[in-house]
Amino acid sequence: MNISNPSRSRTTDVAQPLNLPASIEAALQLADVSWHAILRDALQALQVAAPEYLPELAQDSYLPTEGRLFAAFSRPLATTRYILVGEGPYPRAASATGVCFMDGAVGSLWSDEVGGGLSKAVNRATSLRNWMKMLMVASGKLPADGVTPARIAAIAAQAHAPDSPITQSLPQFQAKLEQQGFLLVNASLVFRPHVAPVKEAKPWQVFFLHVLASMQQEMRAQGLALPTLVLWGKIAAQLQQFAVLEQFPQICAEHPYNLSFIHNQEMQAFFAPMDLLGLTTA
Fold it and tell me: % helix / strand / coil in the chain, to the nearest 5?
């Protein structure tokens, strides 16, 4: 598969019509209309690079389900200030939402048990758990050298207090990220247990690079600042070899499934002003 430095040109639309499988075409409707032309251009690039991929995918079972292939693009392009790049969908149907790091199996963020801290569902979602702990340290509510169950339980107790300003659920957390202008997208949009992740990721890398190239052109034409790329982990960092990424401001870190992510001071400084957990006023 040939991955070239993408440049956007719709003159190829006439020469090479985009004939999407019906299920892929239907999935586009979950994306905001401002993304439709960009996503179609990117899918066309994918189709040229791997002609059999989308027809094969449409005949197979994959995650996310319920037509949520492009769910990450549900907010308007013009509101995008950050692009957080994950690896791929969770390998569980209940968890894979089409939005990176947003585990659909997680409801409440906090345990209902007396003396409990984070909810059991959050504790099972390793990356989300470490992300939350990093945010607690960033807020000043959790000492960097004191990330203990007892201290987290104290924050959970505050969360359960009447009229608490603390973020209660994962949907609320996702809404706050979106309000800050985050696009939460995986480097590979699908997961299939019988396909090696490295193989699955290759056509989606073509797709993602063309999305970035199209964004660059569209946003500059509208006089909008390019969003900051937030690259977590080795798979996301591999994208830096492509020239299109040089046009975007970037911030990089280890993947949050690493415990060291909790103590990443650059990430703490980046997220602290956003107060995503509502801890500053708690």
Answer: 50, 10, 45
CATH code for the domain in which residue 185 is found: 3.40.470.10
**Contact indicator for 46, 7 with CB cutoff of 8 Å:** no
**pTM, entire model:** 0.91
Ranking 4-8, 40-44, 66-70, 259-263 by mean pLDDT, the lowest is: 4-8
Query: Tokens representing 231?
Result: 């690259």
> What CA dihedral angle connects 95, 257, 30 and 68, to 10 degrees?
-40
Give the C-alpha separation, 91 to 80, whole Å: 27
Nearest to 94 by CA among 103, 86, 85: 103
Print the domain residue range for 235.
1-282
User: Measured between alpha carbons, how far apart are the two ends of the chain, in Å?
Assistant: 52
